[in-house]
Amino acid sequence: MAKNQILIRGGKIVNNDSSQFADVYIEDGIIKDIGNNLQLNHIVDLKVIDATGKLVIPGGIDTHTHMQFPFMGTFSVDDFYTGTKAAVAGGTTMIIDFAVPKKGDSLIEAFDTWKGWADPKVCCDYALHVAVTWWSDKVREEMEILARERGVNSFKMFMAYKGLYMVHDNEMYQAFTCCKKIGAIAQVHAENGDLIAEGSKKMLELGITGPEGHELCRPEEVEAEATQRAITIANSVNCPLFVVHVMSKSSAKIIADSRREGKVVFGEPIAAGLGTDGTNYWHTDWCHAAAHVMGPPLRPDPTTPKYLMQLLANDDLSVTGTDNCTFNTNQKALGKDDFTKIPNGVNGVEDRMSVVWEKGVHSGIMDENRFVAVTSSNAARIFNIYPRKGKIAIGSDADIVIWDPEATRTISVKTHHQAVNFNIFEGMVCHGVPLVTIAGGRVVYENGVLHVVPGHGKYIPRKPFPEYVYSRILKRDDSWITILKQAY
Ligand SMILES: [Zn+2]
User: Fold this and answer.
1) Which of 154, 175, 297, 382 lies at 20 to 30 Å from 320 by C-alpha?
2) Which residues carry this modification: N6-carboxylysine (predicted)?
């Protein structure tokens, strides 16, 4: 069988810790060599890509997507095919989606269901977080099995969506304790679900039924309070915590302060929160406003995106996801008379890399190395797939993007590759354009043309106890045991 061999010549390799000018040689999906003027003329069928003047970066890892998610009476329209196709067109070569069981349902069955949906469709590699939406001994056993046998090292708890997915503090305490035992990272959707339920009632009673009611019933402090509470519970059992979709300044500030106090917590802002804001909920066009509805909401304070970007640049926040969960206008219209029925979710999987480059690097807030850290390497480290992913190095997977930092593109629903009929970044001009995307050693996108194959991507199992997250945690356990022994 012919080998699949690619040489990327003349580019500047950018990793999270350093940049260098060198060629990259890829064979059968793996980076085989890096060096200056690699001589490979003897190889027949060598595909040579000229990257002179361009950056060669690790493919993006989107830590937060919901493809074909059954939610609020419908399914998100981007499935694992259109979603990952759009991802690679935007320079992302791996997504981490969520298997979300209903209360009372098996976590393992949910995992198998989601994997069954993804495997035949994915155009790039993927992994699955699993949600814990209820608590019992069976849930504990299944978490252990998922960690041991299925490569799941992250479990998400919802503090919102009361009655549907929400868990209470005592259940979180149990779930966090279990995460700690099995070497997983606890993730939280941090919003106070009880307050949202009461706030929604109040808004509807006042006759506020439009999309603005979605933000008004769950202001920043509802997110900030839950963030603080999750950190407190996680810290009480010495469990590492990952706060998904950090949307507000106040919540981000709590995470930053906690990190400075030494707590092991990571924050994930998303493309939507970095690229646009909640003033859109007051847009006179209902469809436009509803298209921005997601939980937690975008914040009306227009200084929020820049603030989040600055924290991201300074390591107060760690990674970027998207919460990509797309619904067409007719689906959003399920809530035309009642904002609580508008399916929650926005796009982002295709545009995240360009939005972060434009708002972060082009604006001078972060450098190219930090860009790689927050779009790829940190995710790989936290979820224990580094340096297989998140790094251009010999032996790493050939998930690579050739990035033009000077070129621009205008984001539009007319040209995007997602299935959804709206784009929350419509009209945004972004510097930073992916020219070529290589996923698993194959060119899947080149000069505007996709060459994807559904099912080409693989499920990436993740080992427990990632060192990047757990070395401090385990050391603290040792210290505690020593202190206790001395006390008794
Ligand atoms: Zn989500």
Assistant:
1) 175
2) 156
